[in-house]
Amino acid sequence: MNPSPTPPRLDTDALIDDRRTRIIVCCGSGGVGKTTAAAAIGLRAAQRGRHVVVLTVDPARRLAQAMGLSYLDNIPRPVDADFASGGSLHAMMLDMKRTFDEIVEAHADPDRAAQILANPFYQSLSSSFSGTQEYMAMEKLGQLHRTHEWDLIVVDTPPSRSALDFLDAPQRLGRFLDGRLIRLLTAPASPRRAYMKVLNAGFSIVTGTLTKVLGAQVLKDMQTFVTAFDTLFGGFRERAESTYRLLQTPGTAFIVVAAPEPDALREASYFVERLAGERMPLAGLILNRVHVPAAPRLSAARSIAAAETLENNHEMPNGAVEPAEPPRYALAAGVLRLHAERMQLAARERRVAEHFTAAHPTVPVVAVAAQPEDVHDLEGLRAIGLSLASRPVHG
Amino acid sequence: MRARDTDWEGVRLHVVTGKGGTGKTTVAAALALALAYDGRKVLLIEVEGRQGLARLFDCPPLPYAERKIGIGPGKEGRAGGDLYALAVDPEGALLDYLEMFYGIRHAGQALTRLGLVDFATTIAPGLSDVLRTGKATEATRRKAGGREVYDAVVMDAPPTGRIGRFLNVSVEVSGLARVGPVRTHADTVARVIRSPQTAVHFVTTLEEMPVQETLDGLTELRELGGIQLGGIFINMVRPDGVAEADLEAAAAGRADEAEIALGLKAAGLADSQVLAAELAVELAEHARHVALQERERRELAAAGQPRYELPAIADGIDLGGLYRLAEVLREQGAA
């Protein structure tokens, strides 16, 4: 049998020390520590002299507090830490409704802007969670990039049902704008010739069905919205596409974050393939929350056997247990059982990580050990940044 | 055998939410299995298009159709029940809705080609939510021959961060549709969701972020009003055989290394001093983790909802593991 493949090591320090790296995108499924990883990378980059802004979509108060901020909002706030390196760190949290409103206000005349902001479809679109958050994350990323105020932007992606939604946002917008449905809805307000063209596509049947299903009022609101929004759409698409192209440039590095569990790594695998398909530059995988035994030489099997020996010794000295006596070696037996469990967990984690590497042998990986407690302060974030930069924890 | 009382007598639609990574899909499946006893018929619905159920039950991807996926655990001479599964996607739900209420499936397909589904998910996600919750409530209410087709429906719902919006369909849609058929549909869905027939369960692990999200989610649903809060399912609990006093000492950095070394030596392990020091490190980490978990457990207890604890399955979840979890849920009265 071939020995299990060893992946190349993801060198995050080299990545953040390279001044050409301008954007780091942390992606991965929910609950793998993506936001914390993004913050830790941002902090470490600032420690190493970069001017960094961390854009998070996660409203985790604890993370804000960990960075010494009482809360995060749509404006980059300076993190108060002494960077001897001359670097700096700002952090912000995406407020998608405000970001959307600002775009409308910036790109439409006041009357039209007011009309759009009051439309029920706009309100649903701008405040709902799915889809919009991805667009707005892209918009905000583009905005931050255009200010040239920071030389490194670290962003974590929205907790989408699948990590891939983030990449789909511009295309979905494009498909939507080019869609016949939009032309259909805007048709009544368009010149007669366009109207006739749509008529050929079965206009009456379709609007008839729409009216039946949605009701005439909904259809009317939709039409008003689409018509009022029409002039803004072009700019939206242009910016979404330019951000999309920005993500393909060598100045961008994608880091996939995953916990050593089958589901998270399956998602990570999809993402790696998808990034390759989109020609987006992948830096590597952070394998987060890996369990590392302190006594790796003692195998699970031997540990369990030893625990059993101790437990049996206590119970059967000729069938007589002295009642007053506390069980002998109970602590050692308990510790041995804990150790066995930890060894089994570590073995399982290694197996799923090996599956990933077998499928993606060239993807660099760095493992971060599970912390007994969550991150509460800059010190905790620093520790994670440090473990990203230090020697491998496995073998 | 006495008639069993479960904590959720009268609940027929079980909505299961939880932070990503807490095992929401696994717990939903285990709960559905647990409910499928004694010839009862249970439908398990996933709404996020992930095919997580197919993986869990080790079967090909589920189509948009209700199909039998397993049988519930029979016990003490009594039969199990039938478990059905369904993967709902917005497009299928839309076509279904058109056919069910208007008998116009073909027009629906034309709309799909025109991009109405894209439209629904892009411009008005509230519409796509109402279609998905609509399918679950329809299955809950469906009757044949004078009785309900399913004794219980379990929905693997979106994560905690989205659950309030997802369930508050009527309000979400009312902004869009003040009158009309979609509004009527949304109101029907909302009535079922806000009835005593429905309960919303939260899955969490004993970690800070999932617990915080659970508490936030409970508060959010309480504020929405009229939605019955369900149980808190504490997942992946790892029991240990270490005495409390020893844990406390270890958490404070005072693990009794000499005592451990004696035991290791008695068990015939070589190099017991060094090994004891290493194992003491593991014990200390474990003890700090346990202390943290106790804090989280107390926070969850303060929320005042029934709690269930599910053990971590050491070698990953397979079908056998699911049955074990289902058994645990029944023992604790969740089903």
Features:
heterodimer, A: 395 residues, 56% helix, elongated, B: alpha/beta, 2 domains, two-stranded antiparallel sheet
Element layout with pairings:
The complex is a heterodimer of chains A (395) and B (335).
Chain A: H1 12-17, E1 23-27, H2 34-47, E2 51-56, H3 61-66, E3 77-78, E4 88-93, H4 96-107, H5 110-118, H6 120-127, H7 132-147, E5 152-156, H8 165-178, H9 180-186, H10 192-200, H11 203-214, H12 216-248, E6 252-258, H13 262-277, E7 282-290, H14 300-315, H15 330-359, E8 365-369, H16 378-389
Parallel strand pairs in A: 1-5, 1-6, 2-4, 2-5, 6-7, 7-8
Antiparallel strand pairs in A: 3-4
Helix pairs in contact in A: 2-16, 4-5, 7-8, 7-12, 8-12, 11-12, 13-15, 14-15
Chain B: E1 13-18, H1 24-35, E2 41-46, H2 52-56, E3 67-71, E4 82-87, H3 90-102, H4 105-114, H5 116-122, H6 125-141, E5 143-144, E6 147-148, E7 152-156, H7 160-167, H8 169-174, H9 181-193, E8 198-204, H10 208-224, E9 229-237, H11 244-251, H12 257-266, H13 272-301, E10 307-311, H14 319-331
Parallel strand pairs in B: 1-7, 1-8, 2-4, 2-7, 8-9, 9-10
Antiparallel strand pairs in B: 3-4, 5-6
